[in-house]
Specification:
Oligomer: heterodimer
Number of helices of chain B: 0
Order of helices and strands of chain B: EEEEEEEEEEE
Radius of gyration of chain A: 14 Å
Largest sheet of chain A: 6 strands, mixed
Low-confidence stretches of chain B: none
Strand content of chain B: over 45%
Low-confidence stretches of chain A: none
Order of helices and strands of chain A: EEEEEEEEEEE
Largest interface: A-B, 27 and 21 residues
Strand content of chain A: over 45%
Largest sheet of chain B: 7 strands, mixed
Helix content of chain A: under 10%
Helix content of chain B: under 10%
Distance between the termini of chain B: 36 Å
Distance between the termini of chain A: 41 Å
Number of strands of chain A: 11
Chain lengths: 114, 115
């Protein structure tokens, strides 16, 4: 069975500071990994994904994540937070077969302080 | 490009009433999903479909039903609404076939309250 753990349901950073949102996963097979962002009253939008190949993945809006197999982690980072980054972020793990069973983390709400 | 469209956006139901949440996508995606989102709980899969005429249960199917008569539409039915079904419901779709590494595309959700 696969699972996702997001450490910290709420994270606050100052505008311009580093953003670090943590995600650890468990999976019996090499997974696909995703980060989604959800703005208020909207659905989830893809930020970035890891499938195979390069372990450092760049996404939209200046976000990136690094797949670390030895640590079973896929942490999301952004060098400098912007007010528009305030949202909820979800890490997700997917198996590689069939209908793509996706397991979502419980989410991390990012607050950006001016 | 509409993507995934959900209607209605908001609804209040009384206990025991029934309703259908509509979901349609215009991307010709084979796979479609229904999730519910509760505060602090992430998304839980209710039902999914791998193509027209094929549906299957997810993690939390009790109290819900679905159908998939066309590629585009995947309605979710609540037969006897209960307070525990108060939630935000999201429909999602993605390409099928070899595209297992493709992300899901989400609608904007239906906010449902059962009183």
């Amino acid at each position: 069975a696969q699972s996702v753990t997001q450490l910290g349901s709420h994270v606050s950073v100052s505008e311009g500071a580093l953003v670090l949102l943590r995600c650890n996963y468990s999976s019996s097979v090499p997974p696909y990994l995703f980060w989604y962002v959800q703005y208020p009253n909207q659905g989830l939008q893809l930020l970035l994904k890891y499938t195979t190949g390069a372990t450092l993945v760049k996404g939209i809006n200046g976000f990136e994540a690094e797949f670390k197999k030895s640590e079973t982690s896929f942490h999301l980072t952004k060098p400098s937070a912007h007010m528009s980054d305030a949202a909820e972020y979800f890490c997700a793990v997917s198996d590689r077969g069939g209908y793509q069973k996706v397991t979502f983390g419980t989410g991390t709400k990012l607050q950006v302080i001016p | 490009n509409a993507g995934v469209t959900q209607t209605p956006k908001f609804r209040i139901l009384k206990i025991g009433q029934s309703m259908t949440l509509q979901c349609t996508q215009d991307m010709n995606h084979n796979y479609m999903y229904w999730y519910r989102q509760d505060p602090g709980m992430g998304l839980k899969l209710i039902y999914y479909s791998v193509g027209a005429g094929i549906t299957d249960k997810g993690e939390v199917p009790n109290g819900y039903n679905v159908s998939r008569s066309t590629t585009e539409d995947f309605p979710l039915r609540l037969e006897l609404a209960a307070p525990s079904q108060t939630s935000v419901y999201f429909c999602a779709s993605r390409p099928g076939g070899q595209a297992n590494n493709q992300p899901q595309h989400f609608g904007d959700g239906t906010r449902l309250s059962i009183l």
